[in-house]
Amino acid sequence: MTSTQEVALTRERTRSLYRGDPGMWSWALHRITGVATFFFLFVHVLDTALVRVSQDAYNEVIGTYQNPIVALMELSLVAVVLYHGLNGVRIILVDFWAKGCRYQRQLLWGVGVVWLVVMIPATFRIIQQIMKGIS
Protein backbone atom coordinates (compact mmCIF):
# COMPACT_ATOMS: atom_id res chain seq x y z
CA MET A 1 0.00 0.00 0.00
CA THR A 2 1.30 3.44 -0.82
CA SER A 3 1.43 6.24 1.69
CA THR A 4 -1.35 8.12 -0.13
CA GLN A 5 -3.68 5.15 0.24
CA GLU A 6 -2.72 4.79 3.92
CA VAL A 7 -3.49 8.45 4.60
CA ALA A 8 -6.87 8.18 2.85
CA LEU A 9 -7.69 5.02 4.81
CA THR A 10 -6.69 6.68 8.10
CA ARG A 11 -8.86 9.71 7.33
CA GLU A 12 -11.78 7.43 6.53
CA ARG A 13 -11.43 5.59 9.85
CA THR A 14 -11.14 8.73 11.99
CA ARG A 15 -14.03 10.60 10.39
CA SER A 16 -17.03 11.27 12.61
CA LEU A 17 -20.34 9.51 12.11
CA TYR A 18 -22.04 12.90 11.92
CA ARG A 19 -22.96 13.80 8.37
CA GLY A 20 -24.76 17.12 8.91
CA ASP A 21 -28.23 15.87 8.05
CA PRO A 22 -31.18 17.53 9.84
CA GLY A 23 -32.36 14.05 10.80
CA MET A 24 -29.24 13.65 12.92
CA TRP A 25 -30.05 16.87 14.79
CA SER A 26 -33.62 15.66 15.21
CA TRP A 27 -32.34 12.37 16.66
CA ALA A 28 -30.09 14.15 19.16
CA LEU A 29 -32.73 16.72 20.12
CA HIS A 30 -35.30 13.96 20.67
CA ARG A 31 -32.99 12.29 23.20
CA ILE A 32 -32.16 15.58 24.93
CA THR A 33 -35.83 16.57 25.22
CA GLY A 34 -36.69 13.11 26.54
CA VAL A 35 -34.10 13.39 29.31
CA ALA A 36 -35.22 16.94 30.15
CA THR A 37 -38.84 15.80 30.38
CA PHE A 38 -37.81 12.91 32.63
CA PHE A 39 -36.02 15.27 35.03
CA PHE A 40 -39.01 17.61 35.11
CA LEU A 41 -41.33 14.72 35.94
CA PHE A 42 -38.94 13.55 38.65
CA VAL A 43 -38.92 16.99 40.31
CA HIS A 44 -42.68 17.28 39.85
CA VAL A 45 -43.28 13.98 41.65
CA LEU A 46 -40.97 15.06 44.47
CA ASP A 47 -42.61 18.44 45.03
CA THR A 48 -46.08 16.92 44.81
CA ALA A 49 -45.07 14.29 47.38
CA LEU A 50 -44.48 17.13 49.85
CA VAL A 51 -48.26 17.32 50.33
CA ARG A 52 -48.03 14.07 52.30
CA VAL A 53 -45.16 15.40 54.41
CA SER A 54 -46.43 18.85 55.31
CA GLN A 55 -49.00 21.17 53.82
CA ASP A 56 -46.88 24.17 54.83
CA ALA A 57 -43.75 22.75 53.18
CA TYR A 58 -45.70 22.11 50.00
CA ASN A 59 -47.16 25.63 49.97
CA GLU A 60 -43.70 27.10 50.57
CA VAL A 61 -42.20 25.19 47.64
CA ILE A 62 -45.10 26.11 45.36
CA GLY A 63 -44.71 29.74 46.47
CA THR A 64 -41.12 29.76 45.21
CA TYR A 65 -42.45 28.91 41.76
CA GLN A 66 -44.27 32.24 41.51
CA ASN A 67 -41.49 34.24 39.84
CA PRO A 68 -40.51 35.23 36.29
CA ILE A 69 -37.53 32.87 36.09
CA VAL A 70 -39.72 29.86 36.78
CA ALA A 71 -42.23 31.16 34.22
CA LEU A 72 -39.45 31.12 31.61
CA MET A 73 -38.59 27.60 32.73
CA GLU A 74 -42.25 26.68 32.18
CA LEU A 75 -42.01 28.11 28.67
CA SER A 76 -38.93 25.96 28.08
CA LEU A 77 -40.85 22.96 29.40
CA VAL A 78 -43.69 23.60 26.95
CA ALA A 79 -41.16 23.85 24.11
CA VAL A 80 -39.37 20.65 25.13
CA VAL A 81 -42.50 18.54 25.65
CA LEU A 82 -44.12 19.85 22.47
CA TYR A 83 -41.07 19.06 20.33
CA HIS A 84 -40.63 15.64 21.92
CA GLY A 85 -44.28 14.74 21.33
CA LEU A 86 -44.41 16.01 17.75
CA ASN A 87 -41.14 14.34 16.85
CA GLY A 88 -42.40 11.13 18.46
CA VAL A 89 -45.40 11.19 16.13
CA ARG A 90 -43.03 11.78 13.21
CA ILE A 91 -40.93 8.78 14.26
CA ILE A 92 -44.07 6.62 14.47
CA LEU A 93 -45.08 7.73 10.97
CA VAL A 94 -41.61 6.98 9.58
CA ASP A 95 -41.60 3.55 11.22
CA PHE A 96 -45.16 2.40 10.53
CA TRP A 97 -46.34 4.29 7.46
CA ALA A 98 -45.29 2.66 4.20
CA LYS A 99 -44.32 6.02 2.69
CA GLY A 100 -42.84 7.39 5.93
CA CYS A 101 -39.19 6.96 4.93
CA ARG A 102 -39.80 8.68 1.62
CA TYR A 103 -41.35 11.71 3.33
CA GLN A 104 -39.24 11.88 6.48
CA ARG A 105 -37.64 15.22 5.56
CA GLN A 106 -41.05 16.80 4.88
CA LEU A 107 -42.35 15.32 8.13
CA LEU A 108 -39.41 16.90 9.97
CA TRP A 109 -40.22 20.27 8.43
CA GLY A 110 -43.85 19.72 9.42
CA VAL A 111 -42.77 19.14 13.03
CA GLY A 112 -40.88 22.44 12.93
CA VAL A 113 -43.81 24.36 11.46
CA VAL A 114 -46.37 22.94 13.90
CA TRP A 115 -43.94 23.55 16.78
CA LEU A 116 -43.61 27.22 15.78
CA VAL A 117 -47.36 27.67 15.24
CA VAL A 118 -48.05 26.37 18.76
CA MET A 119 -45.06 28.00 20.48
CA ILE A 120 -45.71 31.55 19.26
CA PRO A 121 -49.05 31.97 21.08
CA ALA A 122 -47.78 29.98 24.07
CA THR A 123 -44.80 32.32 24.34
CA PHE A 124 -47.02 35.40 24.19
CA ARG A 125 -49.35 33.94 26.82
CA ILE A 126 -46.56 33.11 29.26
CA ILE A 127 -44.87 36.49 28.71
CA GLN A 128 -48.24 38.17 29.42
CA GLN A 129 -48.41 36.28 32.71
CA ILE A 130 -44.85 37.34 33.55
CA MET A 131 -45.66 41.00 32.85
CA LYS A 132 -48.87 40.77 34.87
CA GLY A 133 -46.91 39.34 37.80
CA ILE A 134 -44.20 42.02 37.61
CA SER A 135 -46.61 44.97 37.59
UniProtKB/TrEMBL annotation:
List all membrane-crossing ranges: 24-46, 67-86, 106-127
What are the protein's UniProt keywords?
Heme, Iron, Membrane, Metal-binding, Transmembrane, Transmembrane helix
| Primary localization class, coarse | membrane
List, alphabetically, the CDD domains matched. SQR_TypeA_SdhC_like
Any single GO BP term: tricarboxylic acid cycle
Task: Name the family the entry cites.
Answer: Belongs to the cytochrome b560 family.
User: What's the protein here called?
Assistant: Succinate dehydrogenase, cytochrome b556 subunit
